[in-house]
From TrEMBL, chains A, B:
Name of the protein described by the UniProt record: LacI family DNA-binding transcriptional regulator
Annotated HTH lacI-type domain residues: 7-61
Keywords: DNA-binding, Transcription, Transcription regulation
Transmembrane segments: none
Organism field: Streptomyces sodiiphilus
GO molecular-function term, one example from the UniProt record: DNA binding
Keyword Magnesium listed: no
Length: 338, 338
DNA sequence: CCACGTGATGGGATCGTTCCCATCGTGGTG
DNA sequence: CACCACGATGGGAACGATCCCATCACGTGG
């Protein structure tokens, strides 16, 4: 045995006693090939252990059968933030039935952004998934210019032009705060996500909406912006307690920030939920492990991953055919922190 | 303005008034090109906004400038298990200075394994990183056969033939148990990782070694195998308490399992560390968030990611040139659970 | 009986690079 | 002055697939 060289389509054709084109047809499932020829080709393929060279295929079809998942990690959140892991799982799950491969790109700084830009300009992927986009993110615009199929998880503004999926952030946040009101809380603070992200604004909006519903006038001193990190949550909590020592509830725009807030409350001897009730957002794993376990707004991040992938594949297959925007529902999970 | 078509090397050559080859030389940094020609080419590239087609390049060089990171996720651990996120961060960090891209492949079942096998046979990557390998994993063997550069995080046995890096699991575990002995504990149980993985065995070995050092005979009833999951840790803890109600310490082979054990101990009203001391392994984020915070053996998983990537790149550049085996140190981090 | 449509087939061109080799000029040397 | 070595250059072939188009056999209808 053994050519050290991998067999090519020519080898297979010779072996099967047919032309290259016929082999190619069998490979691509064309109906224009006789049963005998097909059988011969299949046999030759099996005998030679032939695997088509996808690079050569890519060159002529100009498709790569791969997509990129871009994760901005300036705050080194992958790992601390279970969100990204869940997205990855969902994406991978949705790709499992296809032959499409996943390229993971963490973008930490300008240099890496430049490298990514070049990579995308070279069209080394068929499409791009963008996660955690900030308002002034240069990437979405670039992708739009390049005409590279793109789907966002989340959106930059309510009139996002790019295809995207997003959770019902306003609705989820409203429900959370409504729940606090029902529990009799009146001085409800909020720790927000980054306000240059739509997700940050929406959850803040939901907080304000629920208060308005309850006839309570929003108090700016009860709003502390943070950055989705635990440390940010801690700092924000500290600031809130200084400004409004009498607050009796906090709605944090993520579980991780809520965990930080809880730590700070514990440190100061405020009892949760007796003195201060806390609600998070995401229903990530941390929510079940805080002390006490966290009431939170569930969003299925894995489902988000699946959805944006589905949209992207659709958009790649037939540009313009995918839904522009998909809204994913949220639901309140009540635990012991409220 | 403009051609809708992307410029090719020919376009650039024409624009610069030189031949294709000269452009190619400039692109690849060959010294055999005059300063004037080089300048002309650079200018043409900038004007045309030319980006080389890497697929075409791959076809002739038969290099893809990408590597695959394979994560077996049968237990859907990505996310629950911070290990994988940390590996990804490390790998990505090490790749940042190169032009190599990262392909992430989660393998959940046989079908996905088949798909991956075909993918690797087609040599669509230059090398492979393998994480969390089990003793009877078919992938390492396949890769060896294919002659595809491969590096493992961890190893299958102490005489692993493939390039790999591994933490000092025996040493770390020994140190942990020694620490428990110093704290005066005598009935020290262990919750192991999967015993069909070397990491599981080594940490168990370390436990036994330390006991031997302390003149204590290992008791089989104090060994409960689990699977690195929190639920597994909980179940194992339950079994241990049933078999040896008087145990006064537990060494868990991962923080996540330790968290499960803690939960079970709390549920049963055993005080930690007063009644039972607990040590974990990994120093992952969960270790700082359990109640009480976990004493644990630190291993730098991110460093592991960087190391295996470095080895792989080296092995790709010059097969056989990389170190066969790199040992990464561990260190004990003492918190409140002991 | 012949022209014609149709299914099956294969050869040539092509995708955009890199690599091999031939060519050309030029300055140094015997 | 002839020759040579060497740096610079460019054209042709190759990488391994797909796609376009010409060809061919064959059955059918006029």
């Amino acid at each position: 045995m053994g050519d050290s060289r991998r067999p090519t389509i020519k080898t297979v054709a010779a072996r099967a006693g047919v032309g290259r084109t016929t082999v190619s047809r069998v490979l691509n499932g064309s109906p224009l090939v006789s049963p005998e020829a097909r059988a011969a080709v299949m046999e030759a393929i099996a005998e030679l252990n032939y695997v088509p060279n996808s690079v050569a295929r890519s060159l002529v079809t100009s498709r790569t059968d791969s997509i990129a998942l871009v994760i901005p990690e300036s705050e080194s959140r992958l790992g601390a933030e279970p969100y990204f892991s869940a997205i990855i799982r969902g994406v991978s799950l949705q790709l499992a039935t296809t032959r499409v491969q996943l390229l993971l790109t963490l973008v930490r700084d300008q240099r890496e952004l430049d490298r990514l830009t070049e990579f995308l300009s070279a069209r080394r992927v068929d499409g791009v998934l963008l996660v955690s986009v900030h308002r002034d993110d240069p990437l979405p615009g670039l992708l739009q210019e390049l005409g590279l199929p793109t789907v966002l998880a989340g959106r930059r503004s309510p009139d996002e032009p790019l295809n995207h999926a997003h959770s019902d952030n306003v609705g989820g946040a409203t429900e959370a705060v409504r729940h606090l009101l029902e529990r009799g809380r009146r001085s409800i603070a909020t720790i927000t996500g980054p306000l240059d992200m739509e997700v940050g604004n929406s959850r803040l909006q939901g907080w304000a909406d629920a208060l308005a519903e309850g006839g309570i006038e929003p108090d700016d001193a009860l709003v502390a912006p943070a950055d989705f990190t635990e440390e940010g949550g801690r700092v924000a909590m500290r600031a809130l307690l200084e400004r409004r020592p009498a607050l009796d509830a906090v709605f944090a725009a993520s579980d991780v920030m809520a965990a930080g807030a809880l730590a700070e409350l514990n440190r100061r001897g405020r009892r949760v939920p007796d003195d201060v009730a806390v609600v998070g957002f995401d229903d990530s794993i941390v929510a079940r492990h805080t002390d006490p376990p966290l009431t939170t707004v569930r969003q299925s991040v894995e489902e988000m991953g699946r959805t944006i992938t589905r949209l992207l594949l659709q958009e790649i297959a037939e540009p313009g055919s995918a839904e522009k925007c998909v809204l994913l529902p949220t639901s309140l999970v009540v635990r012991d922190s409220t």
